[in-house]
Amino acid sequence: MAVSFARDILPLFRPIDIAHMKTPGVLLDSYAYMSDAANNHANAQRVHDSLTGAITPRMPPGGPYWPQPQLDLFAKWMSDGYQP
Q: Exposed, middle or buried: residue 59 (CB in 10 Å: 0-12, 13-18, 19+)?
């Protein structure tokens, strides 16, 4: 079964993370923002890179950082084609 944003990814984000990231315009709870096919899925890739520490600041600010299984699930959501 393909990884789903609503079922598998959205629940990984804590309400505090969603609220904190809205200030700089990162809409973690918006499938349209996160999948953004018109922009080659750049928003999801940027969020993933922030979660893994590939770019800074790392998310979530101050931790706790996502464990590898959650990072892998997010990466699978992307490789499965950004399913809603």
A: buried
